[in-house]
Design a protein that fits this description.
245 residues; alpha/beta; sialyltransferase cstii, chain A; 8 helices
């Protein structure tokens, strides 16, 4: 989805959470400084090389989901591309699946993402106002191909495909990079594992926005978007993501 379509929704998200945009800009500048020169060049072209014309399986961390059962999909050429959202990278690696792309804001098991990067995954590192220290710690440790992203207008070295959380951002990225269909595996937009009441409420708010972001992508995007259920069925994402589960 083009930034001009995504920006109004993100303005609503920032207003809801009180995210100051100057901190987003600080994080973007930090990421640009930390990225190696090759990672600042042709970000979209490199992403499209990985995803264009392929079925993109965006993998989340829904309870009990495990790795995606790629063998259930009909054979295709080119074959499907796995796009792991943050902590789902570890799930994929433990199952012997190296993602084509990893999307992360560095708040999960980052060592698994570094490992995947060293084994050939392109890692899309997202900068936001709360992860400057994580950027400084982890970006220099990635040994492989990187792309940088942030929440504001696209910059020469940074992309903004849209999306709020790592999972829905990965779906937006796959759509913009030319995937022919986006399947959401291991997505649970209702369950909250946090036990502290304030953390629970914050997580629920984020999930509500993630659901709305996916609904917007389904309605305005150019490719089919569907939840891939554990029983093997598919549920198209429509104007209400909640009703498709």
């Amino acid at each position: 989805m083009r930034y001009s379509r995504w920006a109004p929704l993100y303005d609503e998200i920032r207003a809801d959470f009180g995210y100051p945009f100057d901190r987003e800009e600080e994080a973007a500048r930090t990421l640009e400084r930390l990225l190696p020169p090759a990672a600042r060049e042709r970000p979209w072209e490199r992403l499209k090389t990985r995803l264009r014309g392929r079925e993109a399986i965006v993998v989340g961390l829904g309870p009990g989901a495990g790795p995606p059962p790629i063998w259930r999909l009909p054979p295709s050429s080119p074959g499907p591309a796995v796009v792991a959202a943050d902590g789902a990278t570890r799930t994929c690696l433990e199952a012997g699946v190296v993602p084509s792309v990893v999307v992360t804001d560095l708040d999960g098991p980052v060592s698994s993402e570094v490992e995947a990067n060293g084994r050939g995954a392109l890692v899309v590192v997202h900068a936001h106002g709360d992860n400057v220290r994580a950027l400084e710690q982890w970006v220099p440790q990635f040994p492989g191909e990187l792309v940088g992203s942030w929440a504001g207008p696209p910059r020469p070295a940074l992309v903004n495909p849209g999306g709020f959380t790592d999972g829905d951002r990965a779906a937006y990225l796959a759509e913009e990079a030319g995937a022919r269909r986006v399947l959401l595996w291991g997505f649970d937009l209702e369950s909250v594992e946090e036990t502290e009441p304030r953390a629970q409420e914050l997580k629920r708010r984020k999930l509500r926005w993630a659901a709305r972001a996916l609904s917007e992508l389904a309605d305005q995007g150019r490719v089919p978007l569907a939840f891939w259920r554990r029983d093997g069925s598919f549920a198209q994402v429509g104007s209400s993501a909640r009703s498709t589960r």
